[in-house]
Write a structure and sequence with these properties.
alpha+beta, Dipeptide-binding Protein, domain 3, six-stranded mixed beta sheet, globular
Length: 507
């Protein structure tokens, strides 16, 4: 592995360039002292305000504004220095050395030290428990403070994707309660949280980089999808991301509606510990029974991208478009497989869906109708998001669920590792020795072509084994009041509020 030169910007993969969308005109940015924007979000941040322990994508997209790692993602898919000002990678890929940026402040006013960096990485590696908070950190052998401004991370084995894990938040070692008192280094600092109502942050005036344009931000909890239009048009929220297509089309011209991609793997996820989903023939029958194009037409006006495995198009070199054709709708083939599995007369099951995500609810409704054609009776159980996290994701107390799974970092590993048999994030209880081997080969390879080939093998196994019933990467419609501009799409599930600004009256 050749030595990497020090860079201001470092990209570990070629991602599809995502368009930067600006609402209104692009004139002067206003950031007066009393500026305020209210952003609607579909669920409360109840899993944890500690970024190391947050599970829900909706929580992490908000905390993105409060926390930073040694590096952070940019909207073009690259990694740029953050708490670290520079880094080098050893020729053998075993040692990552970071030079800390001078004078970076935590929100509590203290200065970031090498000890804080070591504390944060050691916490996420959590070697004593055997269950690291960041999966890639199981490969961390040692974190060494070389001097007051230099930290070395020494690995057990070479890992060419490890830089992506350095987006993990740096926290102050002195903060004893990060789950309720979040203190980071990001452009916004925590002010307050009112459960089921809002989460409030304000501009961090001592931020090391370019300061946020808008001083005050209220993330307002909007769990009722039916009232989103009223909330927007009535002025109680200024922005809402991932608006359903039908509602986006009904907005007045007071709003700019921008279209991007959610960067999610939406699927009917199957609990492999529950019969009959432990039978590959049943899983394949479900895949043959559905028509993703029809689902997309009903749910998102035909927009989005049909997918056939746990990878979405933004991961350009890893994405395999051809996998969407592994199971083309074939009702008779579906019935045949059901009969072979002992379900000639079909069976019934429940689809558990979080009620605050209308796209997933609508998708489940279309699936119910499509399954009827092969004699399968599915019913929908709507539950609150908090119950989905505790009962479905953590407790595995479900049969099937419709949800979108995101990538925690800009790596193929982030999407595929969760399906290894030993992963604590394996909420479908998938257990396939061939898959585990392919993933281990990918993770251990230092040759990019070989690593890519192994990851593609993982995707192929998931598709052919019908690990889940894959549907689409959903389109993302962002509604932004034209009083604001500066919105950018990222190839991650995040909302970068710091780049928003107030459009001046002259514009």
């Amino acid at each position: 592995m050749k030595r990497k030169e020090r860079k201001a910007v470092f990209s570990i993969m070629v991602l599809t360039a995502l368009a930067i969308a600006l609402s209104g005109c692009s004139g002067d940015k206003k950031g007066d002292e009393e500026s305020l924007i209210t952003v609607g979000i579909p669920q409360d941040l109840e899993d944890s305000l500690d970024p190391h322990r947050a599970v829900a994508a909706g929580t992490k997209e908000v905390l993105f504004n409060l926390f930073e790692g040694l590096v952070k993602p940019a909207s073009d898919g690259s990694f740029i220095p953050a708490v670290a000002s520079d880094f080098t990678i050893s020729e053998d890929g075993m040692v990552y050395t970071f030079e800390l940026r001078e004078g970076v402040k935590f929100h509590d006013g203290s200065t970031v030290t090498a000890e804080d960096v070591k504390f944060s990485i050691d916490k996420c590696a959590d070697a004593g428990s055997g269950a690291p908070l960041v999966a890639a950190y199981s490969n961390v052998a040692e974190v060494v403070i070389a001097d007051a401004a230099t930290v070395e991370i020494r690995l057990k084995e070479p890992d060419t994707e490890f830089l992506a894990s350095m987006t993990t938040a740096i926290l102050p070692a002195a903060n004893a309660s990060p789950a309720t008192n979040p203190v980071g280094t990001g452009p916004y600092r925590y002010v307050s949280r009112s459960p089921q109502e809002n989460f409030i942050v304000e501009r961090f005036e001592d931020y090391w980089g370019e300061k946020a344009n808008i001083k005050n931000v209220v993330f307002k909890i909007c769990p009722n999808a039916d009232t989103l239009l009223m909330d927007l048009e009535g002025g109680s929220i200024d922005m809402y991301a991932r608006l359903p297509a039908a509602q986006a089309a009904e907005l007045s011209d007071r709003f700019a509606v921008m279209e991007g991609s959610m960067n999610l793997v939406q699927a009917l996820y199957l609990n492999h510990d529950v019969a009959p989903f432990d039978d590959v023939r049943v899983r394949q029958a479900l895949c043959y029974a559905i028509e993703p194009a029809e689902i997309m037409e009903m749910v998102s006006d035909g927009k989005g991208t049909e997918i056939g495995s746990s990878m979405f198009p933004s991961f350009q070199k890893y994405y395999m478009e051809e996998l969407k054709d592994v199971y083309e709708q074939d009702v008779e083939k579906s019935k045949q497989l059901l009969a072979e599995a002992g379900y000639a007369d079909g069976f019934s099951f429940t689809i558990t869906v979080p009620s605050n995500y209308p796209q997933h609810v609508d998708t489940a409704q279309v699936l119910v109708e499509q399954f009827k054609a092969v004699g399968i009776e599915a019913k929908i159980e709507l539950i609150e998001w908090e119950s989905w996290l505790s009962d479905v994701y953590a407790g595995h107390q479900y049969e099937t669920t419709v949800i979108g799974v995101d990538a925690a970092s800009l790596t193929a590993r982030a999407l595929l590792e969760r399906f290894t048999s030993a992963s604590p994030s394996n909420f479908i209880s998938y257990d396939n020795a061939e898959y585990d081997l392919a993933f281990a080969n990918a993770a251990g390879s230092t040759d990019d072509l070989a690593k890519t080939a192994y990851y593609k093998e993982c995707e192929r196994i998931l598709a052919e084994d019908a690990a889940n019933v894959y549907i689409q990467d959903l389109p993302e419609f962002v509604a932004l009041n034209k009083n604001f501009g500066g919105y950018e799409f990222y190839p991650l599930y995040v909302q970068d509020i710091a780049k928003l600004y107030i459009v001046s009256a002259e514009e």
